[in-house]
């Protein structure tokens, strides 16, 4: 796998809130983005943001919920890195804390070589999101 194939793109937006805007009508990233990017990089992946640094804004919600950044990743990266990469990113983000009972909001996109895209969108308890995400990844690997 080439180094350029090891990139995860962080798309602007907050899962489940397509029209959410902040300062100067900019689309923000969830405030979890910076910590989540650290977890992605720990897995040996490169990160690219959709927006330039000067255009990035971050939005937090005062709720006991976690809005994770919107990711775009090539299917080949999922196959070439390790089984369960996306699940491991969530677990890595939470560290020693258990994500099982947390409320998660996830919107992740996997692109295929032909340019088509599949989306994984989930809102719910961490254990349910992780189970669905695991099934999604296994299906992509078995194609």
What does this entry look like structurally?
This protein is an alpha/beta fold. Helices cover 31% and strands 27% of the residues. The strands form two sheets. Strands 1, 3, 5, 6, 7 and 8 form a six-stranded mixed β-sheet that branches. Strand 7 (103-111) and strand 8 form a beta hairpin. The longest helix has 17 residues, at 126-142. The protein is globular. The two termini are 19 Å apart. The mean pLDDT is 88.
Keywords:
single chain; 143 residues; alpha/beta; 31% helix
- Domain count: the total is 1
Reading the helices and strands in chain order gives: EEHEEEEHHEEH
Shape: globular
Q: Could you give a short account of the major beta sheet?
A: 6 strands, mixed
Radius of gyration: 15 Å
Q: Please count the helical segments.
A: 4
Low-confidence stretches: none
Helix content percent band: 25-40%
Structural class: alpha/beta
